[in-house]
Amino acid sequence: MTDSIGFLLNDTARLYRRTLDGMLRDLGMTSLQWRTVARLNREPGMRQSELADLLEVEPITLSRMIDRLADSGMVCRKPDPNDRRAWNLYLTDKTDGLIRQLEAEARRVEDHAFAGLSQDERHVLAGLVERVRANLSRKEAVDA
C-alpha cells in the first residue's frame, strides 16, 4: 500500500537523504564523511570500532574513509591509553569552519523540507517520529 505510514516515512527519508547528499556533494563530501565528522564533533575521542557500529558500516569501510579524512588533515588518530590495539579519533581545527558551513546547509535543507509547518507542528512531528524510532529500536520490537 503506497499511502501507508511506513511507506510515507521511508519515501520521505529517501527524499530527505537525497537532498542532503546533493548538498554534501556540492561541498565535496560524502554522506558517510559528514556523519563521521558530525559524530566526532559530538563525541571526540571515540574508538574507531564504536564509530563503525554507530554508523552501521563495516570497520574496513570506515577505516578507509578515516584514512582519507586523516590524509586531508581533518581527523587524527591517537592510541587509546586503555587498549594498545585501539585508536581514538579526533577532529582537527581544520574542520571548524566546515562544520559550521555544513550545519548551516543542513538547516537550509531542513527548512525547505518542513516549509509550511509551524514550529508547534514541527515539534509534534519530531515527538511522534522519536516515539516510532524508540519503538523500532527496542530489541523485542521485530526480529530483524
TrEMBL record:
SUPFAM superfamilies per UniProt: Winged helix' DNA-binding domain
Keyword Kinase tagged: no
Organism: Blastomonas natatoria
One Pfam short name: MarR
SMART domains reported for this sequence: HTH_MARR (SM00347)
Protein name: DNA-binding MarR family transcriptional regulator
InterPro entries: HTH_MarR-typ, WH-like_DNA-bd_sf, WH_DNA-bd_sf
Sections of the chain in a coiled coil: none
PROSITE patterns according to UniProt: HTH_MARR_2
GO molecular function: DNA binding; DNA-binding transcription factor activity
